[in-house]
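Changelog-adjacent note: as of this version, every example in the card shows the full chain rather than a window. The one below runs 267 residues end to end.
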Amino acid sequence: MMSTTVKNLRLFWQGTVLSYVALFAWLRPVTYMASKILMPLAQMFFFVFLGSYASGGKNQDFYVIGNAIQIASISGIFGVTMSVGGDRDAGTLPYLFGTPSNRFFIFFGRAFMHIIDGAIGVVIALTWGVLLMGLDLSRTNLSALGLTILITTFSTCGLGLLMGCLSLITANVMFVNNFVYFSLLVFSGANVEISVLPAWMQVISNVLPLTRGIASARALAAGASLHDVAPMLINEIGIGIIYGLFGYFLFAWFETQAKRNGTLETV
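Full-length structure tokens:
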């Protein structure tokens, strides 16, 4: 039993590291650094200034925090999708399906590094907010905020795992990814308060990741305690798990169908 557990953990870690490093076969370090430093700054400048102008300059922190937390979806959606779908593009998916390795650890290992990567991206974005946009975190419980960032990135990666499975059955998943990413700018409450959205949009917002994470971060910045935001964070974790499990079952179904129909070599 112990030997099996150790092997699965080793498999999880090796798959985690290799799937992340493999991205740099085409992603140059300079491009990566630009995506981590300049892209969050550009997004925040656009939405913070636009939102501040529209609101008469009264709600700048609302847009700073919302867009900073929303940056987690870059790693959560695009990074995880490329880690899962990269096996198909590289032609290694048939070999993966041919191994006796534990699929659960292989699948969820694809997201682990992106949770850390996404959290770093959010911290960078918040740093820009403090240095350039006057974000005040003096009343914030920073440890609770750090936990909120990790949980929100985790839930977003759950959605990314589901999107990654879609990349195994469609050649145009980047269009879907972009649609989801930009939809989150509205539905997650990053730039529009959930309470002013139409009822049908609020229903969608409540089943998406980020929504409760952004709300929790704003509450913490206003002086709330971890106890105050704990219910929202628990729900955020639950949403991430549901999306991740849905993606895993889709991954398992895809493997079963490929083997049954003899289409492993045409993936």
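Structural remarks: The chain has a mean pLDDT of 84.
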